[in-house]
Design a protein that fits this description.
572 residues; 4% strand; 26 helices
Length: 572
């Protein structure tokens, strides 16, 4: 039990939390190209569907490459958005509206799940002898606001939540499963429908491993919880879940998918992204090294919450829904990451919704020293980061400081910076807001339990907005394939035939397909060959009894290791 007054659970003004969420969610979606790697691959699949035929919609893949990108929901949504909004805002910008939909749906699901859990009797503050404790609604809203702020404050989500990857739909689906399971505790039919919808989204946006893990984790949570869910929730969620798993195979049947493509689709469903039959040492190493910075400040708050509520005197404290349900989904998601062939930062996204909900319940029990540490650490860190962003931007635009400008020129040869007045004004405004938030926090001693999160969430938003205004042209130049694609297109004569791209990565193929009108395909009979490696080209020539002549070599300005080589292929 905790002791709190009503003043400590005064909720954040709605205009502030709405504005913070909207700014964070929308900034960085527009005025840029698809970025290497996963962002370009996701957009490439959407672009192929937009330009393709019914086969592309049944089995999403990149044009010219008969390898499934996996389950189709993210690509269906992205291609539909390109059709609807592409003529007005451009294909890449329209596709990234998919990321916004997933992000805002995730934020809403986290907020409402925490709100419902925060209203439950087992987590309520102790009744004070003289009264004045918070009511159920106020306490629930405060915890929900805290969970949303924790989600926004997660450092690792900033870039990844603005990219067109299937993981965004997985993030949304898992969050909706969490909400539906919690909602089912008091409204079984409604909760079952939401849980089932979440399972449908996960089943249509991830491989079979993650889909089955999410279902299993939800079942375990329901069995372990001391608040039993009713038959109506079980029935609704089960029926919809089964429909979710059946939708894609039914479409194969209705579309009379050829056997060859059915095997491709099945392989993509099982193994896209690639999985192992046992835990991966590489994934374990990645998780153990990168998780702590990626999930800051979510994980320390979650540990505090687990430590407090797990040792509560009430019988079956670990079986309480506010611990049992999100913990089960977190452990399940962690197992999935460990069984990935080689996990990356995008895989860590699915760990955050569960942790954010758990972490929110640490707010009523945080000690003043912990609150001060989180505040001052965030204030110091984000102020230093913001100052560095401004200094580097100044060097980029004015050439001063000279050493900084020289380093930029060395790292990004050929980049020409231009002053953007609108970006400057927006960056100046967000910096002013940050200074106001810092002044508010340091000039008074607010009692609200969410006070330690305002600095962290505002700081993450500040960092992201500054990067996506002052640094956007620089980052875009470093991460896009636009310029090297244009140079490639100038080399190929008009009507020169197809280009064999069998040795290119997915991101490169997707980018070249979008930025050029070249005929790209994985076909060894093409008169041209685009590859990284000279040894690959020579091996290809020996194997196919052909002669290859190097015609063009280039790279992205920001990548010193990557080399793209175009060969003319001549039969001997």
């Amino acid at each position: 039990m905790v002791k709190l007054t009503a003043a400590a659970t005064k909720s954040i003004p709605r205009i502030i939390i709405f504005a913070l969420t909207l700014v964070y969610g929308f900034v960085g979606l527009f005025f840029r190209d698809p970025w290497k790697n996963e962002d370009a691959i996701g957009f490439g699949g959407m672009w192929s569907l937009f330009r393709g035929n019914s086969l592309d919609w049944v089995v999403p893949h990149l044009t010219g490459r008969d390898i499934s990108l996996g389950t189709p929901l993210p690509y269906w949504i992205g291609a539909t958005l390109i059709k609807l909004f592409g003529p007005w805002i451009g294909a890449a910008n329209a596709a990234r509206l998919y990321s916004a939909i997933c992000f805002f749906a995730t934020a809403l699901a986290i907020w409402y799940a925490t709100y419902l859990l925060g209203r439950r009797r087992e987590v309520q503050p102790m009744a004070l002898a003289v009264g004045g404790q918070p009511d159920l609604k106020s306490y629930g809203m405060t915890l929900a606001d805290g969970a949303l702020l924790i989600f926004l404050a997660c450092v690792g989500l900033a870039q990844r939540a603005h990219e067109t990857t299937p993981m965004m739909a997985q993030l949304m689906g898992i969050s909706i499963v969490l909400y539906g399971t919690v909602r089912g505790l008091d409204k079984p039919w409604q909760g079952g429908l939401w849980t089932g919808l979440g399972i449908i989204i996960v089943a249509l946006s991830s491989n079979l491993s993650l889909s089955l893990i999410v279902v299993s984790s939800t079942i375990i949570a329901v069995i372990a919880s001391n608040a039993k869910l009713r038959f109506r929730w079980i029935f609704a969620s089960t029926v919809l879940g089964l429909i979710g798993f059946a939708i894609w195979p039914i479409i194969w049947y209705l579309a009379e998918l050829p056997l060859h493509w059915r095997h491709i689709a099945e392989e993509g469903w099982r193994n896209m992204p690639e999985m192992r039959s046992n835990p991966s040492i590489k994934s374990l190493g990645f998780l153990s090294v990168n998780f702590w910075a990626y999930a800051w400040p979510v994980w320390p708050l979650a540990i505090v919450s687990i430590a407090h509520w797990g040792r509560a005197k009430a019988a079956g404290a670990w079986r309480a829904p506010h611990l049992c349900i999100p913990l089960s989904l977190f452990f399940g998601s962690s197992i999935y990451v460990l069984f990935r062939l080689e996990a990356n930062e995008h895989d860590l996204m699915i760990l955050i919704p569960s942790l954010s909900i758990i972490a929110a319940f640490s707010l009523p029990v945080l000690k003043r020293s912990v609150i001060s540490f989180i505040d001052w650490f965030a204030m110091f860190s984000f102020t230093i980061i913001a100052l560095a962003i401004w200094i580097i931007w100044l060097a980029n635009v004015t050439g001063y400081p000279e050493s900084t400008a020289a380093n930029i020129a060395r790292l990004l040869p050929g980049f020409e910076s231009q002053f953007n007045f609108l970006a400057f004004v927006v960056a100046l405004a967000i910096t002013g807001v940050w200074l106001s938030v810092v002044r508010w926090r340091t000039s008074r001693a607010p009692k609200e339990i969410w006070r330690c999160l305002i600095i962290s969430a505002s700081g993450t938003t500040l960092m992201w907005v500054l990067l996506m205004t002052l640094w956007l042209p620089t980052i875009n130049y470093a991460k896009t394939y636009r310029y090297v694609s244009v140079r490639l297109a100038q080399v190929i004569p008009r009507g020169g035939g197809c280009i064999d791209t069998g040795s290119l990565g997915f991101a490169q193929l997707a980018s070249f397909e979008y930025f050029t009108n070249l005929d790209l395909r994985d076909d060894p009979n093409c008169p041209w060959m685009l590859t990284h490696s000279q040894s690959e080209a020579k091996a290809f020539a020996r194997l196919n009894n052909k002669k290859v002549t190097l015609l063009w070599e280039d790279r992205r300005a920001a990548d010193r290791d990557e080399r793209l080589r175009l060969y003319e292929v001549i039969p001997e």
